[in-house]
């Protein structure tokens, strides 16, 4: 099984309210590890269930294998629903080629990937990339359109995108989220995880 976690950066300051809006979860997220929890995530911790409602689990099949990645929902102009998510191009470029949209399966509203109660399955209709180069991993971004929109709820809502000029994020605290390895070469976390990172100039 070929596992990867797409690094998805979100602002560290999150406000909580019931009205659904981009970047506003109905459940307040943990911004630091909870001491009572057994924590095996390198530089991170398990997220509170449904505190990151924009996160999407992505499964791409190729041959007899599959790859898992993460993505996040964004608004597309529809009222109270969307059919667009962003992810990394390398999640869709496997074994030297981009995989067909029909091989891309999506799970929305998930926390633990061993339990799919109350989650929403979707398939990809199509996707676009932007001059991705696998060797250097330049322009490592892809926009995926789902086969049909998903309604916003407490478990499913979009993340905000910056408007206008992006501020300088070097040395600023950011969150990365996804499903992946808890420690190098050890167990795979089936629960959504958060990592606190310091943005480097390379990723700005």
TrEMBL record:
<feature type="signal peptide">
    <location>
        <begin position="1"/>
        <end position="21"/>
    </location>
</feature>
<keyword id="KW-1015">Disulfide bond</keyword>
<dbReference type="Pfam" id="PF00089">
    <property type="entry name" value="Trypsin"/>
</dbReference>
<dbReference type="InterPro" id="IPR018114">
    <property type="entry name" value="TRYPSIN_HIS"/>
</dbReference>
<feature type="domain" description="Peptidase S1">
    <location>
        <begin position="41"/>
        <end position="204"/>
    </location>
</feature>
<dbReference type="GO" id="GO:0006508">
    <property type="term" value="P:proteolysis"/>
</dbReference>
<keyword id="KW-0732">Signal</keyword>
<dbReference type="GO" id="GO:0004252">
    <property type="term" value="F:serine-type endopeptidase activity"/>
</dbReference>
<keyword id="KW-0378">Hydrolase</keyword>
<dbReference type="InterPro" id="IPR001254">
    <property type="entry name" value="Trypsin_dom"/>
</dbReference>
<keyword id="KW-0645">Protease</keyword>
<protein>
    <submittedName>
        <fullName>Newborn larvae specific serine protease SS2 1</fullName>
    </submittedName>
</protein>
<dbReference type="InterPro" id="IPR043504">
    <property type="entry name" value="Peptidase_S1_PA_chymotrypsin"/>
</dbReference>
<dbReference type="InterPro" id="IPR009003">
    <property type="entry name" value="Peptidase_S1_PA"/>
</dbReference>
């Amino acid at each position: 099984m070929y596992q990867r976690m797409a690094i998805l950066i979100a602002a560290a300051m999150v406000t909580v309210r019931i009205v659904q809006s981009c970047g506003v979860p109905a459940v307040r997220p943990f911004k630091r590890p909870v001491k009572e929890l057994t924590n095996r995530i390198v530089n991170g911790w398990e997220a509170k269930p449904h505190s990151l409602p924009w996160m999407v689990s992505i499964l791409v099949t190729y041959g007899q294998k599959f790859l898992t990645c993460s993505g996040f929902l964004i608004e597309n102009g529809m009222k109270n629903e969307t059919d667009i998510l962003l992810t990394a191009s390398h999640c869709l470029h496997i074994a030297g080629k981009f995989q067909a949209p029909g091989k891309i399966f999506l799970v929305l509203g998930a926390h633990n990937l061993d339990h799919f109660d109350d989650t929403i399955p979707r398939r990809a209709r199509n996707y676009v990339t932007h001059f991705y180069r696998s060797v250097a991993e330049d322009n490592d971004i892809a926009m995926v359109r789902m086969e049909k929109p998903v309604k916003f709820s407490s478990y499913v809502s979009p993340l905000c995108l910056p408007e206008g000029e992006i501020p300088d994020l070097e040395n600023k605290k950011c969150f990365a989220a996804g499903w992946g390895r808890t420690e190098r070469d050890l167990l795979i976390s089936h629960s959504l995880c958060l990592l606190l990172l310091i943005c480097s100039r390379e990723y700005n």
